[in-house]
Amino acid sequence: MSTPLNKLPIQAVINGEPKMFLAAPGQVLADVLRDELELIGTKIGCNTGDCGACSVLVNDRLVCSCLVLAAEVEGQSVQTIEGIADGAVLHPVQQKLLEHGGLQCGVCTPGVVVAAKALLDSNPNPTEEQARYWLAGNLCRCTGYDKIIHAVLDAAEAIREGAAS
Amino acid sequence: MAVQEFVAPKSLPEAQGIFANDSSASWLAGGTDLLVGIRLGMRDPSRIIDLKQIPELMALDVSGDSILIGAAASAYDILHNSEIGSLCPGLADALDLIGSTQIQGRCSAGGNLCNASPAADSIPALIANGAVCRILGSSGERLLPVEDFIVGPGQNALKSDELLVQLVLPKPMPATSDAYLRLTPRTEMDIAVAGTGVSITLDTAGICTAARVAIGAVAPTPLLVEAAGQTLVGSKLEDDAIDSAVTAVRAAASPISDKRGSAQYRTHVVGVLVKRAIQRAQARINAGEAA
Predict the structure, then answer these.
(1) By CA distance, what is A72's nearest residue in B?
(2) What are residue B48's DSSP bridge partners?
(3) Region B44-57: what's the mean pLDDT?
(4) Global confidence as pTM
(5) How far is B105 from chain A, CA to nearest CA, in Å?
């Protein structure tokens, strides 16, 4: 989808830091994140918006970065899996996925973490059904989803308790 | 051939000027169909015109007599507009069934319409609500009802110099509500085997004074079934009236058989869905959820 001849200079805030990069007019954000910005935590699974492995937040909105052109994020903020943890301190979603064994091969995990964080930012106390529907666009072929859902609900509880204390 | 140019005009005249000069350009709203089409080799635009910097294309406005939905506004934005959700809960249900959370963050009602899939979820709901397309072309503006906008599978009525700007829905009358129901083999992330959008208006005695019934995924295009609506008007939505509407809908359906279901199955199911959607809209009115 990309050609090297007519790249556009794009300025965007990536994980809180202003960045400038070049993108071909048809190049998708997922490819730019991985190939230009070396943020390879974002995985590319299907490349057609079905699997959710490339989930990122653009202006706090959960999207598949394979279905966003890099040129579209001019002037916007992008948060990837690399921007979720606070330094060495894992986000509660990441910590609970570890504790529950909510990952095996790990390819879907960055997308799951980003999507679950977006859920808990907008709804700190989701029901199991709400969590399952919200994460329906994040396909996992290893875990069978139960451990992921339990981890997300546990993380929600941990965040609520942290906010209350 | 790859995309050679990306432009993001900031106004309608600017967008029109670009498009009129280049028939190999594609409009970009949410990109959930266009970018997949490019990836799969089904679309090959040399130039992409992003519509999301144009205020009219993104605005949601319920302040006047009509509900105005910018053609490029995302499903997420529409679903988080509580006024639209309370005026047209069935339209909201339809948008909430499209794709995943990630897809809803990008996909637009205008794009779902322009993509013109026979199985598009939002289109029967828009037709039921009497939505009209506001179309801008080089020779001016025209209005076209949604049921006339889709002319075939994947084909819409836009001419090469035209752009879908807005969807205009009349504000529902008092004691009016709508519903959208579809059948899919899975509970989410799937394409309708059959779908229906229904809008019902009742008077104080519970008699139906207006009804629009639209069906999806059971014909080359989503259809307004006027005969089904007519059988409901004047009734109290008793079983006989609903059964007549179901018969009218099944007569109007001309589905294909494919891996999602046989023609016979789809014809049966769309009738079942219409019955349930009528009852759901009626229940919404009776529960005081109506406009």
Answers:
(1) B50
(2) B6, B26
(3) 96
(4) 0.95
(5) 6
Report chain A residues whose CB lies below 8 A from the CB of B48: 25-26, 69
Contacts of residue A119 in chain B, CB cutoff 8 Å?
A: 101
Tens digits of residue pLDDT in B67-111: 999 999 999 999 999 999 999 999 999 999 999 999 999 999 999
Question: What are the structural domain ranges in chain B?
Answer: 5-170, 176-286
Are B124 and B150 within 8 A, CB to CB?
no
As given in the structure block, the two tokens for residue B188 are: 């989410």
| The pLDDT value given to residue B55 | 98
- As its CATH architecture, domain A8-83 has Roll (3.10)
Asked whether the predicted pLDDT for residue B258 surpasses 80, the reply is yes
SS3 B176: strand
Q: Are B219 and B253 in contact (CB under 8 A)?
A: yes
Q: Give A-chain residues touching B39 at CB under 8 angstroms.
A: 1, 47-48
CB A148 within 8 A of CB A135: yes
Task: Nearest by CB to B99, from A25, A28, A137: name it.
Answer: A137
Average pLDDT of the segment spanning B136-145: 94
A105 is written with which tokens? 């091969």
- Number of H-type helices and E-type strands within chain A: 5, 5
Contact B101 A115 (CB under 8 A): yes
Which of the following CATH numbers is that of domain B176-286: 3.40.718.10, 2.70.70.10, 3.30.390.50, 3.40.50.720? 3.30.390.50
pLDDT in tens, A8-36: 999 999 999 999 999 999 999 999 999 99
Q: What ranges do the domains of chain A cover?
A: 8-83, 92-164
Residue whose tokens read 């910097």: B53
**Is 1.10.150.120 the CATH classification of the domain at A92-164?**
yes
